[in-house]
Structure formats: C-alpha cells, structure tokens
Specification:
alpha/beta; FAD/NAD(P)-binding domain; 2 domains; seven-stranded mixed β-sheet; 19 helices; about 20% strand; elongated; FAD-bd; monooxygenase; FAD-binding domain-containing protein
Length: about 600
C-alpha cells in the first residue's frame, strides 16, 4: 500500500494549504480493512458529489476552469534533468499540456551521443500516439515480420509470427480505418527504430531552446520563500549559457516551494518541480534519495554492433537469435540499409568493465566467440566498423516500492525520478525505453490532472474575497506546490506498479536466454506456450525438410516454408506475463489513447 494511501486511510485531508492540517478519522484505531472500507465509502460519496457537480456545470464555469488552469501553468516551470528518450518524452508531454519546461543535459550537443542500439516499439507506442508522433515514427522506422531462433550451426529451434493470410487480412482491415495508429496499419509487423532517431524526433518536436546542453548537475536544494522576497530569479544562467530566458522564468510573486539546481559551471536554476531522467547512474537519484538501492550486476556483458545488411538476406525484415547455449546473439533491423546485433555472455564484472572500454577488443572477442557459427554471423561481425561497436556490463536494480523512491524530503517534495533512474532493468526484454516513454506521458498527465481546479480535494482559498474575477479567487502558491508534490507521488506509485513485473521478468530473462536448454525446441514450446508436443513434431518435420538459417539465402523462402508447413504464434511467456500484458494494455489505452497531450 502506498504512503499516500496509508495516510489517507488514517486521516481526512481538510486543506492542501498545509500538509499537516489534518483532522483524525474517528476510525483510526480500527483494522486496516475497516480503514479501507471507510475510505471507500468516502471516495464513493465524493464521486457522487463530483458527478452531481458536473451535471450542474454551465459553459461559463468550464471556461473559468480553463482560464484557471492556464493561469496556474503560466506561472510554473518544470525542470527535467536528462536529455535521453525518457527526459525528452516527459518534456514534450509537459509542453503539450501547457507547462514551461527546461531540460538540462550533460552532453555538449545533441550529436555528441553515440548512435546507440535500436528498440522495438511495444508499450511505448501508446505514449508516442498520445504525443502525436506516429507519422514521424513510422517514417523513421524499419520493420520485422517474423522471429526465428537457431542453434550455432543454423538448425531451426523455434519461430513465431502471423501467418501470411493473417498479415494480409490484418493489413486490409487496418488500411481502411483512419482512426488506427499508422503502425497498426502495417499488418502484423513490428517496428524497430534507432534510439538516436527516436530521440531526434522528440527533440525536434520541442520548442526551441528547451534543452540546455553541457549541464552537469552538482547539487539540489529545496527552498521556501514568501511572495515578493528578494531572491535569485527562476532561470538565472551563468555567462556560459544563453540568459535570454531568465526573465520569462522569473515570478517574483511566487510564494510556494522551489527547487534550486546548481551546476558545476556555476549555473543556478530555480524551478517549481524537478524530474530526474538522467539514466542508470542518475545524479538526481543520489542527491534526493536517502538510501538509493545499489545497482545489481547481472553477470553478463552486452556487446552491440551496427552493420550494412544488403549482403545478408537473413537480416532483412526479420528478427533472429542464435545461441550455442552460453553465448547468445540477437539481431534485428536498424534502418532500411543496416541491421544490428547484440552479443552477450557471462563475465566477471571487473573484466566486463575493462573489456567494454575498448571497441577493438570487443570486436575481436565477439569474432572469436562466433567464428564457427552459421552464416552470416561471422560475416556480420566482420562487416561492423570499430566505431559502431560498443559494450557494457549489464545491471539492474531490484524493484522498489513507491515509498523507497520517495525523496528524502518526504511526500511533500517537489521532485521525482523516472525512467532508468527509477527502475533500470536488464536489456533482454526490450522494455527500458518503452517504459521510459510511458513514464514521461504519465507524469505530465498526473500534473495536469492534479492542477485542474475541478479535481477532488481542490479547495479555493480566499473564497470570501469580493473580487468578481474568478481567476482572483485562486488557491495559494503553497497549495499549488502541494499539488505538484501529490502529482509526483501519484506518478511514482503508478510507475512502480507498472514496471515491477517488467523489471522482474527482465531479470529472469538473463538466465533464461543463456542456458544449454535454450537451443532445444522443447524449451521454447514450454516457455512460450507454443502448442505442446505437436509443435515439437512440426519443428522436427521442418528440420528434416531442410529449413534452417541458410534457407533465408533465397528471399522469402524461410517464411514460406516455415509458415507454410506449420503456424506458430508467439504467446506471453507465463500466466503472470499474460495477465500483466492484458492489464497494462487496458491501463495504457484508458489513460492515453483517449486524449492527446
């Protein structure tokens, strides 16, 4: 149970002007079940009151509420630390909701970062749809139509994907429906997009000068000033940065709480809220959490490479994996002319750190491990330029509770972390970037929801004032700070609940994908619920017919033979996975597809 739910189960919050002004509930000594039942009754009565209020509303009230929201958002500046996919998605979502945003990134420029690997758009497509970026995403992506697994000699182990008839029918159905997202019109294909290309799309959608490059964060402080008090302005920027935005971020009459961010070059920036999206080695996390959980080394090194695929039919429009039971390669499209490979194997952490610092050593080690593997594995590696080889030791963090990632300053803190800074996970389920995209949109939605005057618990201070202007009868700045804090706590709770299963399954995938059983059809039939003993017989029949990695040398032959002789469609790995995917899709659809941000 989250911290805020526990507080609410024991108390009634009578005013947001002070988080300490609470009236104890008369049932506070009862059991937890009794407390929850009491709160359920209260929430039900509030829900009825809200519905009644909405029925009695008139257009003038709606207009006043919109004016109120705009007035509040005009005064607020949200700082985002980290210019990766998660940080830029959060900034764009906030901007689309009317907030002023500044992003601080330590890279000196956008193009400083490596091209990086790619990602398969899964749950992240909900966020990108909400941001209105589907056309740009489809244009920048490549696709895959099937997924094959081979052993190191090229023998077929497993495969899945829609049959040809299913793809044609799905494409035909979707093409005539203009309301469906563009990638849903691709008829059974998955989209893969380079990380840097996705990052560029997000970056170019932001207002100019949103991102301040070369910003190395040094310290974070939370301060409270009275309105009109003489102090450093919001957005005070040193001579090394463009200071043109200083005045527009300054609100000398602000009487709520502020977060003061100090950077190593002397720049100081004040904001009304802070979101740390600065990755697995997050500085924000170290500065605002009391006991941040240490990273957990997963025992494996991951090596990445990007190469031209025109001479390798196996690499075109499909994903494949090859394994010898210990070392595993995963390959997928990168763009229309290139593919990428990911090679992983067990290694001590010290050795992995040392090896990952030398691209040439990574290249040679990858080539040595795969020299006797089926065509075109060695050729793929040999055609990869040194500068496009990278590697890293794989880490994650055990799943945390919302309370564990709540800042040291407590529930009223106007800062939070998201993305890898909050829930980093192994790369073997492809969930990291997808979840970071969802985080960004969810945080913006939470802030928008909690700063809407019509929401539950929103009390107007100064109701006794005689001013006829509805905007003048607003809540106090301190109450707005409380609302920002509550929005962050709500977003943390939703984020950690959503990502818990992803972190756990990504951790389990490390052992699952690197074991001798991985190269047996029986293992995958059981793991993916692919049809039992009958499917094993079908795989054996395909093997006898000569279907292997080499079948792909004739364009289209691999899918024609495999799906022509038997249809295998991938299902979620476990019952928990199936239920989790169903629940997450329902939540994402309900929370994002209904309205664009």
């Amino acid at each position: 149970m989250s911290l805020w739910n526990r507080l609410r189960a024991r108390t009634f919050i009578c005013s947001w002007s002070s988080p300490l002004r609470r009236i104890p509930c008369k049932h506070h000594t009862h059991s937890l079940a009794s407390q929850q039942e009491t709160m359920a009754e209260v929430e039900a009565s509030r829900g009825l009151a809200r519905k009644k209020s909405m029925r009695n509303r008139n257009p003038e009230e709606d207009t006043n509420d919109k004016m109120f929201e705009d007035k509040v958002k005009e005064r607020l500046t949200i700082a985002v630390v980290g210019g990766g996919i998660g940080g830029l998605a959060a900034a764009l979502a906030l901007t689309r909701r009317g907030f002023k945003v500044k992003v601080f990134e330590k890279d000196p420029s956008f193009f400083f970062r490596r091209q990086g690997y790619g990602l398969t758009l899964q749950q992240g497509s909900f966020a990108l749809t909400a941001l209105g970026l589907s056309d740009a995403i489809v244009a920048a992506s490549s696709w895959s139509q099937s997924h094959f697994i081979f052993d190191s000699q090229g023998q077929l182990v497993s495969f899945w994907g829609p049959t040809w008839n299913e793809k044609l029918e799905k494409a035909k159905d979707c093409a005539g429906n203009e309301e469906k997202p563009d990638w849903k019109k691709l008829g059974g294909h998955n989209l893969q997009i380079p990380r840097q290309d996705l990052r560029k799309i997000l970056y170019e959608a932001l207002p100019e000068d949103t991102v301040i490059w070369g910003s190395h964060i040094q310290d974070i402080k939370f301060v409270k000033h009275d309105a009109g008090e003489q102090r450093a302005r919001h957005g005070t920027i040193s001579s090394d940065h463009d200071s043109s935005s200083s005045d527009e971020n300054c609100d000398k009459d602000w009487g709520g709480r502020e977060v003061e961010i100090t950077f190593k070059d002397g720049m100081v920036f004040r904001a009304h809220g802070l979101i740390g999206c600065d990755g697995i080695h997050s500085t924000v996390r170290k500065l605002i959490l009391s006991e941040p959980k240490p990273l957990r080394y997963l025992g494996y090194i991951v090596v990445l490479g990007i190469f031209p695929n025109k001479d390798f039919p196996l690499c075109q429009e499909r994903v494949f994996q090859t394994s010898d039971g210990h070392t595993r390669m995963f390959a997928m499209p990168f763009n229309s002319e290139k593919s990428m490979w990911q090679l992983s194997w067990a290694m001590e952490e010290v050795d992995a750190r040392q090896l990952s610092s030398d691209p040439k050593a990574l290249f040679l080690e990858a080539l040595k491990r795969c020299k006797s593997w089926h065509f075109p594995i060695s050729e793929m590696i040999q055609s990869t330029a040194f500068e496009l080889v990278s590697g890293y030791p794989a880490y994650d963090r055990p799943p945390a509770t919302p309370e564990e990632i709540c800042p040291l300053a407590g529930p009223s803190c106007i800062a939070m972390i998201a993305g890898d800074a909050a829930h980093c996970m192994s790369p073997f389920k492809g969930q990291g970037a997808n979840q970071a995209l969802l985080d960004g949109v969810a945080i913006a939605e939470s802030l928008h929801r909690h700063l809407s005057r019509g929401q539950r618990g929103w009390l107007k201070a100064c109701q006794g004032l005689s001013s006829p202007d509805p905007i003048a009868r607003n809540i106090s700045d301190e109450e707005i700070s409380d609302r920002i804090a509550l929005a962050f706590r709500d977003a943390e709770r939703q984020m950690m609940e959503r990502t818990r299963s992803k972190v756990e399954l990504s951790y389990k995938a490390v052992a699952t994908l690197h074991q001798p059983a991985f190269v047996t059809p029986e293992f995958h039939v059981q793991r993916k619920a692919l049809g039992g003993a009958e499917t094993v017989k079908k795989i054996a029949r395909l093997r006898r017919a000569g279907v292997s990695a080499y079948t792909a040398n004739v364009p289209g032959q691999l899918e024609r033979m495999a799906f022509g002789m038997c249809s295998i469609r991938r299902e979620p790995s476990t019952v928990e996975d199936r239920e989790g995917d169903k629940r997450e899709n329902q939540e994402n659809s309900a929370g994002m597809s209904g309205s664009k941000v």
